[in-house]
Amino acid sequence: MIAPVFRALLALSLMAAAGCSQTENAKENPAPDIAGLMDAANIPGLAVATITDCALKDVSYYGVADVETGEPVGPDTIFEAASLTKTLFTVIVNQLADEGVIDLDKPLADDFDYPRVTDKDAYAKLTPRIILEHRSGFPNWASDPLDKETWGSIEFKNPPDTKFGYSGEAYMLLQAYVESRTGESLDRLFEDRLGDVMAHSMLSAPIKPGMTPAFGHDENGGKEAGRAMKPAPRAGAAYSALTNAQDYAQFLAYVCNGAGMDIGARGDMLRPQSPTDDPEIVWALGWGVQSRDDGVVYFHWGDNKQFKAFAAFNPATRDGVVYFANAYNGLKLIEPIAEPVVGDVTPIADWLDYGRVD
């Protein structure tokens, strides 16, 4: 159960986002020394974009896309968004629910079989809502989503809808359900619904013309344990987006402005619904929510090992930020990059536990 004070903070924040002018933000933190932070964390390249009043404000680029070639990070540099993909998928699912194409509270098992799930009694309890709020009971991954040879049965770690448990595997199940219900691939749904917002982005190969993939670097900022970008052969709702900072910031602004949904549907998507093991962090549908005395901050992160990403927005001030890093240590910079824009995110950084730059 979500505490009443959490609901009240959310209501105030959404009211502000729905039409109030920008209010004074908690921006007491000075602008960070990005180059110094990157050097301390062994991050060769970084792209940062911000939104103000739910509109793209600016995009900044730092360092190099590849330490070997020395090519600078720029507008045409794309990164693996990793789990930020889940936020794109979440918006698509909630739009479909708003249009009556799917029912967030209808069990998937009513009209969709998934052979990889052998516990049919537990499967019968799964709904799109339970999956989006990470209460499916699935492990994060039961297999390699890029290797069908590993796709065995999926065992439940917990009974469905009993506790928070982050799961990419469950999002892949929901993707299969959505594709079955709509008769469209997720690639097509993305292009039709978000293609105008994110014109340079894609959920699968090939990389769009004119875009240059960043190289993913290891924890020393080198290539010894790094890897080249791996475009997925087909869309994966949990992990596969390739994007740049500007595109994702435009998506963040789109969500901040309503995400093409009825206000009730958007409110349902952003309503805190699933408590975690931290009293200050709750999950909405597809988004993490940090509670603060002055309202809430929505967030998500991406971790494909050598590619890292983080995004957050404050619905009360209508400000947001996203950054992409091409290195293993990319999530050590959450606080210095995000806090000048959305205010205190210490509980988020603590909960994610990627460490900090000394």
Automatic annotation (TrEMBL):
Residues 1-26 form the signal peptide. InterPro entries: Beta-lactam-related, Beta-lactam/transpept-like, Diverse_Enzym_Activities. This is Beta-lactamase-related domain-containing protein. Residues 34-328 form the Beta-lactamase-related domain. The lineage of its organism: Bacteria, Pseudomonadati, Pseudomonadota, Alphaproteobacteria, Parvularculales. Keywords: Signal. It comes from Hyphococcus luteus. It holds the Pfam family Beta-lactamase.
